[in-house]
Structure formats: structure tokens, C-alpha cells
Amino acid sequence: MRIITPGEGETFDIELEENLLAKNRELAQANRRRLDERGIKAFDVMGAVGSGKTSLVGRLIEHLRDHRIGVLAGDLTTTIDADRLAQHGAVAVVQINTGRECHLDANVVAKGLDELLQHDLDVIFIENVGNLICPAEFPLGSHARIVVVSVTEGPYMMRKHPYILREADVVVINKLDLAEVVNADLEQLRRDATEVNPKCRVVLTDCLGGEGVDQVAAALGL
Ligand code: MG
Ligand code: ZN
Known about the structure:
Layout: H1 18-37, E1 41-47, H2 53-63, E2 69-75, H3 80-87, E3 92-97, H4 106-116, E4 123-127, E5 144-150, H5 157-160, H6 162-167, E6 170-174, H7 186-196, E7 201-204, H8 213-219
Helix pairs in contact: 1-4, 2-8
The structure holds magnesium ion and zinc ion (ZN).
Magnesium ion binds next to α2.
């Protein structure tokens, strides 16, 4: 089979200039310093639309009752997730509408922190835009990155998205309750994830029912 691999500058993608990425890394480090100065732990959550990012954050907020939690919710245009998370008991929720931008970057997170850091917080969750490609390239300054994958995303999901998986400290395989319905091979998914990223922790969850959420919290050191 012939495989076409576009070279540098040959795709009509928006070219990610190296200096743009370098600037982002700088701003991410500045975000981290602001968090560390205040003793706040931040975690960012990546994954496809519908994988269960908001459900996971909502369950974590409920599980971590003794923590003061803030949320930055990234989304193209809506406040659906931010509204949901406010109901779960977050101390402060800031919505970031990215418009046509398909990922959060460290600059927009810095603006979100301007708001959130007016509150006394222990933990911040940052929910990225539902996208498995470019969030991997944009560290935000968090202490660990979570990737949520639903069992409904198919058997090859882990192998098809190596870039985002390599960024993950914790991989959450969600919607366990649907595993049987879609005939998902959970052990294969787990093996694939650790093959792509041997350092990641894999946790199986049903974020609607709440199963496994305590193990995600433990994997984050919370
Ligand atoms: Mg969401
Ligand atoms: Zn993007």
C-alpha cells in the first residue's frame, strides 16, 4: 500500500510556528508558577466531545468534598459544561469560549486564572475543548494531564491518537457501563494505552454512575 506523508509546509493546515509553541510553553511555566505560589494543584482534562470530561470533573468535585475547587471550562461557544459544573459544587467556574479555536492555550488559561485566583482554592480542573489533536501541543501549566477516552470510541482509539496519549499522566477509560453493549475489549485498550505511553496510569470508570472516580483522584494524588 502507498502511504502519503505530507512534508513540512505541505499541508494546508494552520502551520504551528515553532515560536508560537515556544511562547505557549513560556506562558505555561508562568501559569505553573502562579499556581505553585498559592499551593494550588491544577489538572487539565482532554478528550473527544462526548468522552465524559465534564462528567469526570463533576464526579471529582463531588468526591473531593474537603477541597475548594475551581474550574476553567473550555468550549467553542456554549456554557453547558460550566453550568453543569457549577451545580456540582465548584467554588468558582470560569467559562472560556474559544470560538473557532479548537484548543485552550496557556494565554487564555492565564486570563481564566486572573478570575479564578480571586478565590481561595486548593485544586483547579481545566476542561479542554473536545479535541484529540492540538491540545497535546499546548501545555497549560497544569501539574498533570488527564485524557478521557470512552469505550464507545472504538477499538483502535488508543493507537490512533498517540500524540495526546503521550501527554497523559492519567488515561481514563470511561463508560464502562457501555463496554458490553459495544463489545469493547477493556484489557486491549489498557494494553494499547500503556504501549503508547508506558508512564501513564490507566483507570477504568463509569463517570455517570461514579465507579472508579476515587481511583482517578488517587492517581492525581488527591
Ligand atoms: Mg464537556
Ligand atoms: Zn486546536
